[in-house]
Design brief:
Elements lengths: L15 E4 L3 E7 L10 E6 L6 E5 L5 E3 L1 E4 L5 E5 L3 E8 L16 E3 L2 H20 L7 H5 L11 H12 L7 H7 L4 H12 L3 H11 L12 H7 L5 H12 L3 H7 L4 E4 L6
Parallel strand pairs: 1-10
Antiparallel strand pairs: 1-2, 2-8, 3-6, 3-8, 4-5, 4-7, 6-9
Length: about 270
């Protein structure tokens, strides 16, 4: 079990979400401890003087100041202060085997320097956002202090990833992407999982759900409209899929973001 600092300290910061194409920095409410499963490397860091509790895949609960969750691993997390810092790194963009030690673990981690850095950013970024466009900053340098190692991917699959990420709500199916990559259907699915580290369907599900974050900046959006605009057939499928990924209903996500300052690189509003 990782150590937890006993010194209490107020966060003193406003809720913030900084979204880029492949990274997210979030400081705000955590929400209920329901099961969530995301396709990014997740780092949870408690606010100063507090701790989080986390369990992966129904295992034992761990109490810690920092926890790492590998991509697509179901987990539950609670925060003693209700607030939390979260860093998300899209798994297909980095070499998972060459990440810094504090990012390649699993569950509770003891990385006091990184914990301090993340907490400092939760203080500094809202202040900087008033004078500096966060999107002009290099996310990795600001949060990690160095560029993360890039994952090398087969150019055919890389082209497919680019198409999916540029329009995650597109109705195209795996067979269409296989044709685009000039591969048989079975070969495409095998190569995709080999290169990306996740099945095609899981990747598409995650990217569609992640796209919801871009809509949070528009706090008065109609959820039925968002469901259709993000590629879900109806509101029921939308709500079910989002809850499987984030552990929260879309309405709960938007309700919790009302006081959130959102800085978003791309906003796919049609």
């Amino acid at each position: 079990m990782a150590s937890v600092s006993p010194v209490a300290k107020s966060t003193g910061s406003d809720p913030l979400m900084w979204i880029t194409a492949d990274r997210v920095f979030y400081f705000g409410l955590l929400g209920s401890p329901t099961v969530r499963q995301m396709g990014s490397v997740l780092v949870y860091v408690s606010v100063a003087g507090s701790a989080i509790r986390i369990r992966l895949e129904g295992g034992e609960w761990q109490r810690t100041e920092m926890a790492v969750v590998p991509p697509y691993v179901p987990h539950q997390v609670m925060s003693e202060s209700r607030m939390v810092n979260v860093v998300k790194v899209e798994a297909e963009t980095v070499d998972l085997g060459a990440l810094p030690l504090e990012l390649c673990g699993r569950g509770a981690m003891d990385a006091p320097e990184f914990v301090s850095r993340v907490r400092e950013r939760a203080w500094e970024l809202p202040v900087g956002a008033k004078a500096v466009n966060l999107l002009d900053l290099d996310f990795d340098l600001a949060v990690f202090g160095a560029k993360l190692p890039t994952r090398i991917i087969d150019r055919r699959i890389l082209a497919v990833l680019g198409r999916i990420k540029s329009d995650p709500s597109a109705p195209a199916v795996a067979k269409e992407y296989a044709a685009m990559a000039h591969l048989s259907f079975s070969r495409f699915l095998h190569l995709f999982k080999q290169e990306v580290g996740a099945p095609f369907r899981s990747f598409r599900t995650w990217k569609r759900a992640r796209n919801l974050l871009n809509y949070v900046v528009h706090k008065d959006c109609n959820l039925s409209y968002i469901a259709l605009d993000t590629g879900y057939p109806d509101s029921t499928h939308f709500s079910h899929s989002i809850r499987q990924v984030y552990g929260l209903k879309p309405s709960e996500i938007f309700a919790g973001s009302r006081r959130l300052a959102v800085h978003c690189q791309t906003i796919p509003m049609h």
